[in-house]
């Protein structure tokens, strides 16, 4: 089975603060998107990477892919993204040639995912799962609250799910392509990850061990951590 990766990179990065679109911001001098592309292309199983660029940034992303060293055996495509992450992923899926039957969806905002995590996700799909997510146990206890009417106001706690049964979910998430395409054609709710669309179809999603270095760069402090991880790797 041939495997392609779709990398949604079209977000603005509002929570990171003012600046370039998040995927184009640099970590130790290299754009976050290039780190993410390298992380996926590092897997020998991935033969195509589709980058979903900021809507007005496709040309810039193409030239970034041209100037940075990337594996010869991997093909690259760039398509412009949409208003929501979900839309961006759909636009990436629409660009996939027919011969790919396993698809990974990976956030550009998770630039440091280790190749072993990528391969573990692909292996689980190859072994028959229709949807696979890398996941980690939580350090914090999680409460469900009744959201405050005014921001910053007190929020009544509704429930405390048993922490040992909760997982924080990362990317790349891996899918049987046909099932993910069907999910995008039928699920219209707003979702925060791709696997939840598969759950809505009634299909089974399985979790495999994630990795702490697959964290998402969301807020300014995450940039500090990402650059420290890269320095430790001497990149
Ligand atoms: N994404 C996308 N298209 C969008 C919105 C998000 O491709 N319209 C991508 C982002 O580029 C990112 C991934 O989805 O790689 C995860 O989203 P998130 O971390 O929320 O990134 P942003 O939406 O850019 O950040 P923010 O929500 O702070 O604006
Ligand atoms: Mg976002």
UniProtKB/TrEMBL annotation:
Homology family: Belongs to the IspD/TarI cytidylyltransferase family. IspD subfamily.
Protein name stated in the entry: 2-C-methyl-D-erythritol 4-phosphate cytidylyltransferase
Function summary: Catalyzes the formation of 4-diphosphocytidyl-2-C-methyl-D-erythritol from CTP and 2-C-methyl-D-erythritol 4-phosphate (MEP).
InterPro entries reported for this sequence: IspD, IspD/TarI, IspD/TarI_cytidylyltransf_bact, ISPD_synthase_CS, Nucleotide-diphossugar_trans
Keywords: Isoprene biosynthesis, Nucleotidyltransferase, Transferase
Catalytic activity: 2-C-methyl-D-erythritol 4-phosphate + CTP + H(+) = 4-CDP-2-C-methyl-D-erythritol + diphosphate
Source organism per UniProt: Streptomyces cellulosae
Gene3D superfamilies (alphabetical): Spore Coat Polysaccharide Biosynthesis Protein SpsA, Chain A
């Amino acid at each position: 089975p041939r495997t392609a990766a779709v990398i949604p990179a079209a977000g603005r990065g509002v929570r990171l603060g003012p600046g370039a679109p998040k995927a184009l911001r640099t970590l130790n001098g290299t754009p976050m998107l290039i780190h993410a592309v390298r992380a996926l292309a590092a897997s020998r199983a991935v033969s195509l990477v589709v980058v979903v660029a900021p809507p007005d940034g496709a040309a810039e992303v193409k030239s970034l892919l041209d100037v940075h060293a990337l594996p010869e055996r991997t093909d690259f495509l760039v398509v412009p993204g949409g208003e929501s992450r979900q839309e961006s992923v759909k636009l990436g899926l629409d660009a996939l040639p027919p011969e790919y039957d396993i698809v990974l969806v990976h956030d550009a905002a998770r630039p440091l995912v280790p190749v072993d995590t990528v391969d573990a996700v692909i292996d689980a799909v190859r072994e028959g799962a229709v949807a696979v997510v890398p996941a980690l146990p939580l350090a914090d206890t999680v409460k469900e609250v009744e959201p405050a009417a005014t921001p910053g106001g007190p929020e009544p706690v509704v429930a405390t799910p048993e922490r040992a049964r909760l997982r924080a979910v990362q990317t790349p998430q891996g899918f049987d392509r046909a099932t993910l395409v069907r999910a995008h054609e039928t699920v219209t709710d707003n979702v925060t990850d791709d696997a939840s669309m598969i759950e809505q179809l009634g299909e089974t999603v399985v979790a495999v061990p994630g990795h702490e270095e697959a964290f998402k760069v969301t807020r300014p402090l995450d940039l500090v951590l990402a650059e420290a991880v890269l320095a430790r790797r001497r990149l």
